[in-house]
Amino acid sequence: MFQIVIVGSGFYGIALANRLQKLNANITLIANSERTIFLPSTIRLPFNKDASRVEVLVKDVLNSNVELIVDQVLNIDEERIELKSNHSIAYDRLVIATGAEWDDPICPDKFLQYGIETYANELSAKIEKARNIVIVGGGIVGVEVAGEIAYHCPKKTVTLIHSRDKILNGEVIEKARDSVQSQLLNLGVKLILGKKAEIKGDSVSIDGSQIPCDHLIKATGPRANPPPSSIKGLLNEQREIVISATFQTVSTPKIYAIGDVTNYPERGLVSRHSWLATICHNLQEDVNGTSNYRSIKWHKRNFKANVGISVGPEGGAGQIVLPFGICINAPKFLIVKSKSATLFCGRFKSLYSYY
Ligand SMILES: Cc1cc2nc3c(=O)[nH]c(=O)nc-3n(C[C@H](O)[C@H](O)[C@H](O)COP(=O)(O)OP(=O)(O)OC[C@H]3O[C@@H](n4cnc5c(N)ncnc54)[C@H](O)[C@@H]3O)c2cc1C
């Protein structure tokens, strides 16, 4: 039977495996851990320390028709995936969905390696001990982390350094950026804008002057996390997997990739319905032996999508995209209700399986 293998057991790997079970093919998911973490829920972990609300056993959210293999990938070539346990798996089509690497405090690998509770306790002890916490990078993740710390630890000095003159980046409309900026200031966050931080070990300086810091958090963006592979041309200089709008890799069209590991300019889960429908349709074409592939729109960087940004559990801002690309400010109460209040903790499991 036609063999489709997915490597990566995060959001896209699991959601795709569940959706593909309708195809007349064997579906295998290779995971590097028995557990998986829902990233948007992780930033509150040092404060609520409730692992069960951010992680889940892969087998508990995976359809029983999908074969699950927990192992380490040693190499991928055009025909097979070599695994640490000494065996290799041949594939007709491969999908890579291994996500990205993040710095503390969002380290999926550390969560999985040390156990999420140990890691959460470690982070929480570091925050408790520190008087001056500095976050470098004022994109969405930096803002959300600053908001959480300032909300839960009002006595600490929290400083957020961002290279632009206003918080966040061009993919967020001005009104939402203004709202986030004033909410952070209200929580007592010190903002240093329009400056590049120089980081040496654990110390941070700006224009040669040292910023008081006894806990540094780098929120300067994730890096793609591709699995080991001997395929030439699979990655670009940033080590992202280079795909076309069909999700097929440019180097090897029988290999697909989706999510944070790719060079597709949009990140996140907002467009998951159309992405999953498109990749699923294209794999169906492969199973049928036809090639009537569908494509997603290839956005430019900074294009505007629906966004919700938490600023602590009681704050937030965002934007809603209307027909014809009109983008309006989202009311704060809507973002608090839909995201900030819970950060999806405990209620993300259904997201893997409703397709
Ligand atoms: C703090 C934070 C808040 C966010 N908030 C939002 C939000 O509100 N809305 C939104 O749309 N997006 C949000 N995102 C982004 C969103 O979570 C990611 O874009 C999404 O999780 C990407 O899914 P993925 O499947 O590509 O990667 P991941 O979900 O990271 O999954 C990758 C998986 O692959 C596994 N893996 C890695 N290497 C291997 C290997 N060699 N073999 C097997 N498995 C491997 C990893 O362990 C991991 O389980 C947020 C991200 C963060 C960090």
Automatic annotation (TrEMBL):
Residues 2-267 form the FAD/NAD(P)-binding domain. It comes from the Eukaryota. Gene3D superfamilies: FAD/NAD(P)-binding domain. SUPFAM superfamilies: FAD/NAD(P)-binding domain. Keywords: FAD, Flavoprotein, Oxidoreductase. Belongs to the FAD-dependent oxidoreductase family. This is Mitochondrial cell death effector that translocates to the nucleus in response to apoptotic stimuli.
